Amino acid sequence: MEKRADQLRDRLEEEILTSRYRPGDRLDEQSLAAQFGVSRTPVREALFQLVAAGLIEHRPHRGTFVSEVGPRHLMEMFEVMAELEAMCARLAARRVDASRLAAIEESHRACEAAAESGDMDGYYYENEAFHDRIRAAGGNAFLREQAAQLHKRLKPYRRLQLRVRNRVAASFREHDAIVAAIRAGDPDAAAAAMRDHVAIQGERFTDLLASLEPHGESRRARD
Amino acid sequence: MEKRADQLRDRLEEEILTSRYRPGDRLDEQSLAAQFGVSRTPVREALFQLVAAGLIEHRPHRGTFVSEVGPRHLMEMFEVMAELEAMCARLAARRVDASRLAAIEESHRACEAAAESGDMDGYYYENEAFHDRIRAAGGNAFLREQAAQLHKRLKPYRRLQLRVRNRVAASFREHDAIVAAIRAGDPDAAAAAMRDHVAIQGERFTDLLASLEPHGESRRARD
DNA sequence: GTCAAGATAATCGTATACAATCTTGAGGTT
DNA sequence: AACCTCAAGATTGTATACGATTATCTTGAC
């Protein structure tokens, strides 16, 4: 059985990633302990893990708060993720074997089906699988882990992406270029295609963000 | 003042990174608590942080052990680090300003001085600064953090590098190419030069490792 | 002699209590 | 009115105790 602290971590992570807790929200140890019917010990343990993952921040004797990412930091993270995923694609183009390639193409077709039927949630889901299979095909387990971690962390910001007009169709076309490059065994093309694919998300998102809060640091008002 | 758990974490991290604790060694909560004159609570907290950093592993009811990295995993980590540092160099070539470039060149000259006088420890130290200034020049704080973290984690393995014959001189020449590319504002050249520079370390090290333990997983004997 | 089942011991996960530290706000002083 | 002082309250960090889980050793049967 999983220990309670880990359950708690997963639960809190989920709640943060789905924006049920918003950036800036305070996570009080005592309240959480009471809320989940446990003592502070496992709560603290869970919080430490989330701090290590960068999801929350801890200000001594002030409280722990859901990290405020800010457009700048967010853009930086997308930039890094683009490079990591590009590296996965490059390696995949170089090292992929038949069965892994087949797996990628299978996910690719699943994306296509979801895109054509306008199933946004389905596309989101299949898209995850698509990317993870490419990461796996790279054959670098450490890289895969790093990329997946960043991916997870950016989850709440990517999800909105797909609601942008025509984004799903565009995303699928980008996937197509990636798959073609991997199939052709062209590492540079695969890397470039993947980098663009991910970088576009970052740009689109910061565009969106910029239009919502033009003043950068100025939104501080909350409770 | 820093809390005791953090002191402990730093202390243990230090002892692991300097190989005073070796891979496979067991870290017993109770012994550590007794040894440092604290209770198990802060010890556990410190251990959790090290687990999150990947330095140690936790097997329930078995104990916590210093991570055994293994040649494969090590090579993977070098591969990723090469890419991250290459990205830093690429960004640096694109975005660097006069003062940051001057800082890089200053570190570069310091490396040169250490190399010529055969001061290996000095070279190691200046080399750290050189790389960090390039990371800083990239202007992506998140990337800088990620790269620095990996760098730290690979520290014990890089240090041996410099004892390889002519490695210092070769390393300096590689630095030279990197600086030239950054100064020229050539992102691709900077990235390529940096990637090679770091990748070589990985290759050299795994060469070394392979010559020491030819049988991969076979060394299990210890106390 | 080997293997399995139970007993034993070690370790872990959690709860609770206490101490130390910081924040906050009221009240007084300049 | 602004600033400083200080006490009250809150929150965190640490210690200790206990129950639960699991590894390991013992014992006995085959």
Radius of gyration of chain A: 19 Å
What multimeric state do the chains show? homodimer
Give start-end ranges of low-pLDDT stretches of chain A.
Answer: 214-223
| CA-CA gap between termini of chain A | 39 Å
- Give the amount of beta strand of chain A, in percent: under 5%
CATH topology of the largest domain in chain A: Four Helix Bundle (Hemerythrin (Met), subunit A)
Number of strands of chain A: 3
Main beta sheet of chain A, described? 3 strands, antiparallel
Widest sheet: strand ordering of chain A: 1-3-2
Query: How much helix is in the residues of chain A?
Result: over 70%
Give the chain pair forming the largest contact, with residue counts.
A-B, 20 and 20 residues
CATH architecture of the largest domain in chain A: Up-down Bundle
Q: Please give the CATH class of the largest domain in chain A.
A: Mainly Alpha
Number of helices of chain A: 10
- The helix/strand order of chain A is HEHHEEHHHHHHH
What's the overall average pLDDT of chain A, rounded? 89
Q: Can you identify the CATH superfamily of the largest domain in chain A?
A: GntR ligand-binding domain-like
> Which structural class is indicated by helix and strand composition of chain A?
mainly alpha
Shape field of chain A: globular
Number of domains of chain A: 2
